[in-house]
Structures are given as structure tokens and as C-alpha cells.
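Hi support team,

I'm opening this ticket because the web form for multi-chain structure prediction keeps timing out on my end. I have pasted the exact lines I submitted so you can reproduce it. The total is 226 residues across two entries, so I didn't expect it to be a heavy job. Is there a limit I'm missing, or should I split the entries? Thanks in advance, R.K.
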Amino acid sequence: DVKVTQSSRYLVKRTGEKVFLECVQDMDHENMFWYRQDPGLGLRLIYFSYDVKMKEKGDIPEGYSVSREKKERFSLILESASTNQTSMYLCASSQADTRFAFFGQGTRLTVV
Amino acid sequence: AQSVTQPDIHITVSEGASLELRCNYSYGATPYLFWYVQSPGQGLQLLLKYFSGDTLVQGIKGFEAEFKRSQSSFNLRKPSVHWSDAAEYFCAVEPNQAGTALIFGKGTTLSVSS
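Hello R.K., no limit was hit. The queue was backed up. Here is the completed structure from your submission:
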């Protein structure tokens, strides 16, 4: 079975903390993505990467950064967490040619 | 800019009744088209996809979708809904260009009444 694994299902962090969300895929996929999901807004793309050490900004990159040092791992970093970053974060991966993405279970982050 | 519209925020259907969820996209060329489903507390699962060819595509769990180029639509259908189909459904497009990502609609929540 293909698998995208997010390191935490639930996280609670304090305002101003640096937060790392980790995502690992075992399918040797080239592309990896981070989305944020909020009620009524659907999924919004934060960053994506189509190769190791490559990254592209999505629709809402402000306040976030990413790291992809290895093909299987894509990290989302909140440099200084704020309450408006409380959300569900979804990681996904896809092959370069097939386009459809496999999703992880999501990380529900609460910033207090 | 590319966009995806799901006009219905919430739909309630009786168990055993038919279902149609609407999706319209805005894009110059024909993109890749997808429907995903999300059960409560879960990630997204791919229901079906359209890349090219036959405009009626079959997916998992008895779902199908029809691509209509003239209407820029990709509506999801199921002839008989089961209580376990209650979930949130997302339509998505991928512009079919290098270095692009899935663009999602805002989702439609399906409730199933007995």
C-alpha cells in the first residue's frame, strides 16, 4: 500500500514557537505538497516541491517555509507560530507524470 | 487564474436516492480533473480521475463523473447513496503543466438521511 505519513495527528504549540511538521512518503514520488485546510475555504496550497532541494510557493506561503533534503521527506516550518495558523495541514505526494496525489492523514495544529 | 467552483456547500440526500455533486472549473485548456473524498478526521482519498478519452469515468465505491467540455464541468454522480457515503467531497484540477499542483474547490459536505 502506498503511504504518506505525517509525524503527528495533533499538535498544540504556543504563539511564537518554531514548529516543524514532517511528512514522509514511501512511493519514490518526485512531487510533494503541503496544503492547509480550513472550514469553508477548502484546501489551499502552501508550498510544493518537484525535486530534492527544489521548492515553489503556492497560494499562501506567508509565514511558512519548507525543506526537502531527501526525496522522501518534505518538512513544513512555521518560523513563529501565530494563532491564525491554527488549522489542519495535509501533506501529499505524486509522481511527476501521473499527477494525482496521495494524501497523508493530516496534522491538526492548534496555536495558543 | 485557474479556479474550481463547487456551488453546493452542503447537500442532504436520502439513503438509496441518487446523488449529483457539481463542479465547474475555469481554465483555458482541458486540465486533469479529480474527485476526492474526505471522511471525518481522515485524509483525502481519490475517488476518480479524468485525463483524456471517454468523458464518463468510473471510480471507486460506485461513483462516476462526466466531463463536459462545453460546460467546463465535471460532476460526480452515484445512483444509490449509502449512509457510509456521508463525507466531504472535493473537486480538483491540475493544469497539466510542469511545476504545477492540484487546485481544489471548497468542498461539498454530503449528509445522508435514513
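A quick check on our side: The mean pLDDT of chain A is 93. Let us know if the file doesn't open in your viewer.
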